[in-house]
Description:
By secondary structure, the protein is α/β, with parallel strands linked by helices. The protein has two domains: 21-257, Aspartate Aminotransferase, domain 2, CATH 3.40.640; 260-396, Aspartate Aminotransferase, domain 1 (Alpha-Beta Complex), CATH 3.90.1150. The chain has 14 helices and 16 strands. The protein has helices spanning 3-14, 21-42, 52-64, 75-85, 103-110, 129-134, 156-165, 216-226, 247-257, 260-278, 314-322, 340-344, 362-370, 382-396, and strands at residues 68-72, 93-96, 114-117, 140-143, 168-172, 180-181, 184-185, 192-196, 209-213, 230-232, 235-236, 284-285, 293-294, 299-304, 329-330, 371-375. The strands form four sheets. Strands 1-9-8-5-4-2-3 form a seven-stranded mixed sheet, sandwiched between helices. A four-stranded antiparallel sheet has the order 12-14-16-15. It has a three-stranded antiparallel sheet with strand order 7-6-13, with no helix packed on it. The longest helix has 22 residues, at 21-42. The two termini are 37 Å apart. The mean pLDDT is 95. It binds pyridoxal-5'-phosphate (PLP). Pyridoxal-5'-phosphate (PLP) binds at residues 74-76, 100-101, 103-104, 146, 172, 174-175, 196, 198, 209.
Amino acid sequence: xxxxxxxxxxxxxxxxxxxxxxxxxxxxxxxxxxxxxxxxxxxxxxxxxxxxxxxxxxxxxxxxxxxxxxxxxxxxxxxxxxxxxxxxxxxxxxxxxxxxxxxxxxxxxxxxxxxxxxxxxxxxxxxxxxxxxxxxxxxxxxxxxxxxxxxxxxxxxxxxxxxxxxxxxxxxxxxxxxxxxxxxxxxxxxxxxxxxxxxxxxxxxxxxxxxxxxxxxxxxxxxxxxxxxxxxxxxxxxxxxxxxxxxxxxxxxxxxxxxxxxxxxxxxxxxxxxxxxxxxxxxxxxxxxxxxxxxxxxxxxxxxxxxxxxxxxxxxxxxxxxxxxxxxxxxxxxxxxxxxxxxxxxxxxxxxxxxxxxxxxxxxxxxxxxxxxxxxxxxxxxxxxxxxxxxxxxxxxxxx
Length: 400
Ligand SMILES: Cc1ncc(COP(=O)(O)O)c(C=O)c1O
């Protein structure tokens, strides 16, 4: 991201222009109401009958810079639908990072394929492309890099390898609407991208998800899988599922398209302000922004150097920070492969889960112990950030 741009954002944020948010909140509310009323008046509440989802899909595809967007009822559904549409299933392996929300890996298990874990980079907390490439076997059918917290993962090395080996490259952009990698929107780099519209994300439809792709055949198959595998009227060509969202969710999505860019700008302002204010505070290591990245700043994540302040672990430092409601939390406290279902497997699966052991992904395990997240939502103002920064400074100065 251009440092001059970052400087401007911080300056603007420091003047507390974020206090204008009340007008903008009203605009967002009224735009949403207007779109919902349109759908209610149409009396077409489902996507088999209604047209709002098509408008939302067209707008989202244009914004992301892809040919097709397919609206589904969650980010998890988007991942599952794209994998099934591509024919991923039993006997296949799919490489995922262990530092992510559960759904990145569980969507793979729901296709009956097996998730294989590749380590993350310490600087972005995202999948290390070199480790992912090392984990490729003849069974590897897909790789899912996650653009975590609005920070694009380094995907170019994977693009090349996946093309060469015919591996499906699926970007999990569930936390990164509007983020750019080398000037290109995430979700438009691999063979397909998946987004979530859960309320904590950069934009929301209440619940919902989107698949983005330039591949005509894949887009068609995603639409088929989304609706019970039906290829034409009552012809059920393949096994699908009910992954349809409602037209009312699409209405909320259309209104969100009007505000997502300015909301992302606000997220960036708070994120870079926090980063600047915390960079010299003892006991916290702030994240680096790689040159290739323009993050959309879903949340800010720093690493606790708790030993430097005499704490025994990250949790006790977080407790000290939160004693006055600084609202920080340790995010993803365990690598996915150490959680019960990835250890024991599930009777639904056609394979036994390999016995994953500590040490499989050392960078991830290091970050699990230390990473705290702060939601950089559009309503986070300078005064909130200053309060959080003050808490860090107080704890660094010995307050417990
Ligand atoms: C990285 C990631 N992938 C997938 C998902 C799943 O999205 P949803 O909750 O909409 O199913 C989430 C949601 O939290 C996520 O953060």
